[in-house]
Predict the 3D structure of the following.
Amino acid sequence: MDNITYNQTASIALDATNTISIFPNPSADFITISDCTDAEITIYTINGKMVFNQKNYNSTSSINLSQLTTGVYTVNVKSNNTVFSPQKLIINR
């Protein structure tokens, strides 16, 4: 059996020091994410299922999450090739 070695490095910056804020949190229907310009917002259930994705988000607008059920979610934000630390979001109705 031949040994195959494959090396390729791809990287994206994970910015754990420059955090974002999600408010209100807990939320019922709408959230705003601070300090984002031209960002991609992805929201996952605690089981890892993607339930929301929006590109080109800016902090000047709100995100309508009325379609989500009550529970705990993870919000991932990528803006200008920077991936921010995932944030916990609570939907409470």
Q: What stands out?
A: The chain has a mean pLDDT of 88.
